Amino acid sequence: MGRGRGRGIRQRVRRARAAWNTVDVNASAAGSAAQGPAVLLLWSLARMAGDPYGVGYGGALLLLPCVCVLGYVMLPVLGLIHVAVHIGPGWLLGRAVAARARSGRQHAWAWHLLGTTVVGAGWAVVLAVLCGWPFATTAAVCAALAAVPVLWAAQARRRARVFTAPRGPVALWGTSLLASFGLALLAFGVAGVASVTGLGPFKEYEPPELSAAQVAGVWRGEDGAVLRLRPDGRADATRLTAEPSYSDSDDREYVVCDGTGHWSFVTEGRDRVLVRVGGGCGEETEWTVIGTERRPELFLFVGDPDAGDLRVLRRD
């Protein structure tokens, strides 16, 4: 009984592989490649909007020339990889479930979407375990990334039935190239509207509004730095990064200070804590307030904006 059922499953898988031909692979890969620039653009803009430290812009701007020169060379390869690990397995799963449910061929694209959604959820589990990404958001993104390739392949199959011949690879990938520009422009417009209206991940980060009393306390960094801000304006520092003295002949980007000094709280513009450690240990240094009201942070960025050092202090 079990052997006969296993044989039936293998036969359905073989029929699904036969139905999933070169035309479907090329069409799915072209659809996946077409959405690549839009996905990269949305990811970059969302990361820039949500960057509380304001240090991600330089890297993103440097990435744009690389995308223009190398992006359209790599997109077909990435599209094929996407088909191999996501779209193709989703097709096999969808065909197997459709055969089990005895669904007609007119619903093949819907079963394909269902299969890719399940496969995407499996990859979301892997990414949640290995990278700590949120499962629900990752699964939703995987499902969305599969929609265009699946519908593109369905359109290619329908056109092949109507015109009795599939589109050639030049026409297929040429359409993908043109569609990628259109999708990128659409993504840029959507991100712009979302940024203005403050919706979704494109909402610009807003730092918390704290008082001097809320800032007072002990702040610690991952590198062993400790900054104690006393309510009376005194400051105690251990291994604290500070701006070097203007008369420093070593032309150093920063110094590490131990000692006592004073601090003040400035609310003009972004809230900042000005710290000056005595004993000739550098100049007055601005630590900018970020984080949230429940979990505030202080940060200092020293050096080149594209390759500098970020220092973060968190409240005890």
TrEMBL record:
Keywords: Membrane, Transmembrane, Transmembrane helix. This is Integral membrane protein. The chain crosses the membrane at residues 54-74, 80-98, 110-129, 135-154, 170-194. It comes from Streptomyces flavalbus. It comes from the Bacteria.
